[in-house]
Design brief:
By secondary structure, the chain is an alpha+beta fold. Helix content is 41%, strand content 21%.
Length: 244
């Protein structure tokens, strides 16, 4: 199964590398009587290059098994190439938002821009009032990691739809920002539905969980676990260090 055009390209690269590891050759008849094989080339076995041997030898049996795998992978590669050729002309790719320092500085300008009133008991940290104790704790975590953040910047998620991501975090090590959204009342059906709507729209915009955004959760029965938030942030940073 191919997930996307990008996945097809990745799969194509993988298949080519795997095929290059496999031997090339064919079955033959030795003296018109004994079945055998002719090994054109076998990566990793230079001693067997251009060798003939009877098919009952262990090396020949293994050679034939690998040739079958090469055939299967070659057929799969042809299917992937067909997918790429068919989809390339009509391809519509959303470039993922590149949340560089310029973007982060723009977020600062619109920080704390959510017009929805905060509760009277709004906890405070570092001069910012938060909508919940959990959000204040997340802010302390981010600050403790040494990262700058902006709380509830105004952000046009899709045309005409404004969102206020709970946190926009700048990570200098990877040269980009990421969002962190905290869902704190998932035991309430209406809140859960709104959270699902928000997550879907982030993905539609090209903001991918684990690469561009982290989600944290809690409910009446499941408290916020800051260790899990730290693990998610670490995983996101590591994902952004992989070679493109």
């Amino acid at each position: 199964m191919i997930l996307s055009y990008e996945h097809a390209e990745l799969k194509r690269e993988y298949l080519i590398k795997e095929i290059d590891k496999l031997p090339v050759g064919h079955e033959i008849m030795l003296r018109q009587k004994y079945p055998g094989v002719y090994i054109t080339n076998w990566p990793g076995h230079p001693e067997l290059k251009q060798k003939r041997m009877t098919a009952n030898k262990p090396e020949a049996k293994r050679f034939l098994e690998l040739c079958e795998r090469r055939k299967a992978l070659t057929e799969e590669l042809a299917a992937v190439d067909g997918y790429i050729k068919y989809h390339s002309s009509a391809r519509k790719v959303k470039d993922p938002i590149w949340m560089d320092r310029k973007f982060f500085d723009a977020c600062i300008k619109y920080g704390d821009g959510n017009p929805r009133p905060k509760p009277d008991y709004a906890p405070e940290f570092d001069g910012v009032k938060f909508r919940s104790k959990s959000e204040a704790n997340i802010a302390q975590l981010i600050s403790g990691l040494g990262y700058e953040y902006v709380y509830e910047t105004e952000f046009e998620l899709i045309e005409g739809v404004i969102e206020y991501p709970d946190f926009t975090v700048w990570v200098p090590e990877i040269g980009r920002s990421f969002f962190l959204e905290h869902f704190g009342r998932l035991d309430k059906p209406d809140y859960k539905a709104d959270a699902g709507w928000k997550i879907n729209h982030y993905v539609d915009f090209g903001i991918i969980p684990g690469r561009d955004i982290v989600f944290s959760y809690e409910s009446d029965k499941i408290p916020l676990d800051l260790d899990i938030v730290k693990q998610q942030i670490n995983a996101l940073i590591m994902a952004n260090t992989l070679k493109k």
